[in-house]
Amino acid sequence: MSHPTRTLAAFLAALDYPTLPERVVSRSEELCLDWLGSALAGKGQPPIPLFERYAQRMGPASGASESLTDRRLTSPHFAALVNAAASHIVEQDDLHNSSVLHPGTVVFPAALAAAQELGASGRELIVAAVAGYEAGVRIGEFLGRSHYAIFHTTGTVGTLAAAVAVGKLLGFDEDRFVHVLGSAGTQAAGLWEFLRDGAHSKQLHAAKAAADGLLAAYLTAEGLTGAQRILDGKQGMAAGLSQDADARYLTDRLGERWALEETSFKFHASCRHTHPAADALLALMQSHGLSHDDIAHVTARVHQAAIDVLGPVTRPTSIHQAKFSMGTVLGLIAVYGRAGLEEFQRHALAEPQVIAFRERVSMQLDPQVDAAYPKKWLGRVTVTTRDGRTLSQAIDDPKGDPGNTLSRDELEEKFRRLAAFSGAASPAEAQRLIDWAWQLREQPRIAPLLQPQMRENNSGVHA
Amino acid sequence: MSHPTRTLAAFLAALDYPTLPERVVSRSEELCLDWLGSALAGKGQPPIPLFERYAQRMGPASGASESLTDRRLTSPHFAALVNAAASHIVEQDDLHNSSVLHPGTVVFPAALAAAQELGASGRELIVAAVAGYEAGVRIGEFLGRSHYAIFHTTGTVGTLAAAVAVGKLLGFDEDRFVHVLGSAGTQAAGLWEFLRDGAHSKQLHAAKAAADGLLAAYLTAEGLTGAQRILDGKQGMAAGLSQDADARYLTDRLGERWALEETSFKFHASCRHTHPAADALLALMQSHGLSHDDIAHVTARVHQAAIDVLGPVTRPTSIHQAKFSMGTVLGLIAVYGRAGLEEFQRHALAEPQVIAFRERVSMQLDPQVDAAYPKKWLGRVTVTTRDGRTLSQAIDDPKGDPGNTLSRDELEEKFRRLAAFSGAASPAEAQRLIDWAWQLREQPRIAPLLQPQMRENNSGVHA
Fold first, then answer.
1. Contact A183/B197, CB-based, under 8 Å?
2. Which of B228, B235, B310, B324 should one mutate to test binding to chain A, selecting the residue with the greatest count of A CBs within 10 A?
3. Is residue A224 located within the same domain as residue A356?
4. How many CB atoms within 10 Å of residue A145?
5. What interface predicted TM-score (ipTM) does this complex get?
6. Which residues belong to any copy of the MmgE/PrpD N-terminal domain (chains A, B) (predicted)?
7. Cβ–Cβ of B201/A227 closer than 8 Å?
8. Considering its fold, how many domains does chain B have in total?
């Protein structure tokens, strides 16, 4: 019987390297490097060491898969767990607009861990990532805005995206993909409630999505069966977790539209819902020559989801929570001209000028912005100056969006900054990882990336 | 700030052995043995070996915690995963009526695995189990019938129940219990959609609930923070997963009402929603001296949840799925006078008389039964005989319910039958485990139960 899940599964089973357009392959390499930078930057950031310790306590002391932040070898389950948590803490990992899914932080940890254990090639890793992105984005779009209002889509849908990526590495056929979606979908979880308290759940969600998806795929390979219509069945995900699901998204232009290349790189080190307003404020201040002191009030005119996610955060008490504070982000932009890792680390919580600016920022629902969302994330700010002027600025493509993407040079610079921020990789190692990523399609075998004895192998291809 | 989650957390933190009534301690020992029997009976049943293999592939090759079906030592994470899956496959594990939660299959695997690693005493294990049952049942009641209509409560709420039990073993205070509920609640998952296909998700749900709850507790012990109001917050479990949540249940008579002793033992080896009708049919056939051949049609008059869960199963294709087929269960009762493990294994799928009887059974919503549910699970059947009579039977306390419970002799007999069914323990081992359970409160230290070198220790207390 044909139904949307089966159509999606058939597409995933048929996907192979020669069918991918060059620009999709190239973008996969870029997203892989960008993800790797976020994972390295998580080293030492609370709560990442807790995940490392859990992996040490519960997992094996050796293995073929690599936990990047502590450079330990372990089983794929725990490498996926730790690397996903690590890559979702500094808020620099990629985001797909219309699905509001962070695909990289769930797809790459699971796929890399499995690829290392399975000895997959770079091309197989690329195809796995593409499968994970294409499925995850469509399922996120399918579940719609009502889902995202309560659920952290990267936790819920991320489980399915990770499962699909690993399933591709395990060579699944159409039936297996249907089963793995069933077993991943029935594990899908992640609620936004933690935001109110600045709790650690965002990293837990990414970690669990990657590990649970991997678990679903490995069990499916051994014969575990799953619901045939977990997405649109009567007691499936849409029934339980959405009020506005639309099954047409599940099969939207499969093989023609590549969701992976619609994915945005993050420029600012904050929640993506703050980026459009940050870019608009920066542009406004530059074009009018304003300093933060000139500004009496900023109204960020936003879509409803920004209010849902950022609204609970009024006075941030941790650096991570500050990344969900519109006032803090705009304060950093206004005072320092950027809201990068270093600005957050040094100035987000204690700098009086930033705190003062934060209190002069409010959010307001803008019907036009809301209507364009989630396809477009429009930046609209209205500023009242101390000398009585009212100024407005509009930005339609925030920095990092497909229409305003980062170049490979900018991605390299971002990667080096992320690696240096945590010290998880030396400048020489960072360069090797950049070279590795730009040659991903030529790698004969995905080995651990930061083990001394492995460096020879990894650099061999372009030596 | 006081709120229901904090009140519940304070109760859990304060719970200790001397505060437990004797009958609660005694019932804990019975539930522990009953759970152990279900876990052993799962050996070799699909899909349990898949979980064993995953644990071997992803976990360590040694440890202090025991995977019961393959007798391997591993870390608590994987012992909890395998034992929970195993104890939820033969449909003999306990059930709490008004929460529609199977507490044993999630609480005991997590608590036993942690107790073995931590070297906890029997009394500490008992207190942990009580904490898990008391919290789990109240959270299940809180989420209500709308939750259970879509979600497998044992998967969702089971994650919190398991987390609480392990948190108790880890010595959590009130704050830690609030955090662990947050981190467990945000992982809560499990959809009924798999029932339609007879897929393996029911075991996956139990396995994941136990392991995820344990993960939440171990991470919380190290400092992971969670949402403060995951249950009733604006973007918490009730908001996302229920339409009829009632926060009063969360703190219902804490310390006075003991939910653990309201838990039912399962007599028939099938979904609990079939039990009231099975008992009613058996009583009717006995009182009227009917054989299965005398019966033209049975109408099981049931509550709505029975239709939600059993309705999708029309023609079962696996033994496990047959346990969710009202027709098959009543067919086994009618033909063999019982619906135990052996009857399912031998006759549920292929015996023509059972299949023929199955086709003569229908379910009908009964407003009186539905109004009493979930507090009471009433059994009502109407039978039309081939000679034209219409007969009815009512049962108010199905066999195994608190009002019609199993004696220790009956529990021992059930346990021996479960162990013998799979061959997971020899008769001598089964006797040792019975002795161990009846002395649980005197065990100085919970060691692995089936390791050759451990038998001395475990039997030492009553030698």
1. no
2. B235
3. no
4. 18
5. 0.95
6. 7-248
7. yes
8. 2
